[in-house]
């Protein structure tokens, strides 16, 4: 769910400008799943741009404070959300932990790194939501450690229906700074793409498994 449409548009513009998100409908990228994708998203690029990362951090912090108050801790999902999650926690002045995809194979075999405060509610920070599987895996680890997970906030989501269904099944509220629909509109507005390409990109989001470049 988009919390603020103005923030969504500005976030999309920032991510396009710094090339954290690239659109390539004619020469699509291939995901690990085998899907052909006209979009490549690496929001970690934003960490290299002080003005952009400050904007994203401030907006995330403001939304978290409005939604969940200040008696919280932030959990970043490794590895993409460690950087932005730590910045948000610093902005709010609250504790921070991060969650690995699985426990370490050596040492203390931690999956959650840092001190999880049992008296504080937990808000999970993500950089990108695709199917939601890895994000919800982190939530499961936190809940297994008896954390009270209140919700998740992410920089960007593709808006796949299977992700929405998965979050609903896990009873976890999801808010994002921006989403795929807003991104396509922003790209068309700044003339990065035309209306025909915009329509083609929309068909990918509706059925990524069946989508083909140029169709």
Describe the structure.
With 215 residues, the chain is an alpha/beta fold. Helix content is 40%, strand content 21%. It has helices spanning 5-17, 50-68, 82-92, 133-144, 161-169, 180-189, 195-206; strands spanning 21-23, 29-30, 36-37, 39-41, 72-77, 96-99, 112-113, 121-129, 149-157, 174-179. Strand 9 (149-157), helix 5 and strand 10 form a beta-alpha-beta unit.
Short summary:
This protein is an alpha/beta fold and 215 residues long. It has helices spanning 5-17, 50-68, 82-92, 133-144, 161-169, 180-189, 195-206, and strands at 21-23, 29-30, 36-37, 39-41, 72-77, 96-99, 112-113, 121-129, 149-157, 174-179. The protein has one domain (5-206): Rossmann fold (3-Layer(aba) Sandwich).
List keywords for this structure.
215 residues; alpha/beta; Rossmann fold; two-stranded antiparallel sheet; 7 helices; 10 strands; 40% helix
């Amino acid at each position: 769910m988009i919390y603020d449409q103005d923030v969504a548009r500005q976030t999309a513009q920032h991510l396009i400008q710094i090339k954290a998100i690239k659109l390539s409908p004619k020469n699509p990228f291939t995901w690990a799943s085998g899907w052909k994708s006209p979009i490549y998203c690496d929001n970690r690029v934003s960490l290299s741009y002080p003005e952009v990362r400050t904007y994203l951090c401030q907006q995330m912090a403001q939304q978290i404070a409005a939604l969940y108050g200040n008696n919280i801790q932030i959990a970043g999902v490794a590895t993409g959300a460690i950087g932005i999650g730590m910045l948000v926690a610093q902005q709010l002045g609250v504790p921070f932990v991060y969650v690995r995809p699985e426990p370490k194979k050596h040492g203390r075999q931690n999956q959650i790194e840092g001190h999880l405060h049992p008296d504080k509610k937990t808000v999970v920070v993500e950089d990108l939501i695709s199917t939601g599987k890895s994000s919800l895996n982190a939530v499961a680890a936190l809940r297994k450690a008896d954390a009270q997970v209140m919700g998740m906030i992410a920089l960007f989501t593709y808006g796949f229906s299977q992700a929405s269904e998965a979050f609903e099944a896990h009873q976890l509220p999801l808010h994002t700074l921006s989403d795929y629909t807003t991104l396509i509109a922003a790209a068309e507005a700044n003339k990065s793409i035309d209306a025909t390409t915009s329509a083609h990109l929309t068909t990918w989001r509706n059925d990524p498994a069946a989508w083909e470049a140029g169709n």
